[in-house]
Specification:
alpha+beta; four-stranded antiparallel sheet
Length: 151
């Protein structure tokens, strides 16, 4: 009997420890904090995503790192659509040059919270950024900025 009691106590202690560990496990970051260019980047611009007859919801955020000379972009749907949007995508390219980087355009890519980060070298030149997403009802929101952040 004492042997069974010790086993049950040991099992209960293990279950209790596991439960505490699960409760203390870090929760996933909110959609608003997902997607980052890195600690050396500073935000230099934000461009709205719009549909022809809809108000803007979401943005293409552009960042720059003076230490790397790179521009970075991330597309994020508005807060109300985080996790509900479909096919979120973003592209960044050098205005004059061959650098281009896109995310969310590939076969099978169906991002719902954000697309990116994507980056190109931007020191001494301008960049173009484009991005967008599809709302659950099929309405497509797009945004762009041409020849911006010339550095």
């Amino acid at each position: 009997m004492a042997r069974i009691t010790r086993r049950l106590t040991a099992v209960a202690a293990t279950v209790s420890a596991l439960s505490v560990g699960l409760l203390a496990a870090p929760q996933p970051a909110s959609a608003a904090t997902l997607g980052s260019c890195g600690s050396s980047y500073s935000k230099v611009g934000s461009y709205p995503l719009r549909a022809a007859w809809q108000s803007n919801t979401g943005s293409i955020d552009v960042y720059y790192s003076s230490s790397t000379g790179k521009n970075c972009a991330i597309t994020r749907p508005g807060t109300a659509l985080a996790g509900k949007a479909r096919h979120v995508w973003v592209c960044i390219e050098q205005t004059k040059g061959y650098g281009r980087d896109c995310d969310g355009l590939g076969y099978g890519e169906n991002f719902r919270y954000y697309a990116g980060p994507v980056s190109v070298y931007g020191k001494g030149q301008c960049i173009n950024v484009t991005g967008g997403f599809t709302r659950p009802d099929g309405v497509v929101f797009r945004g762009m900025a041409r020849s911006v952040h010339c550095g």
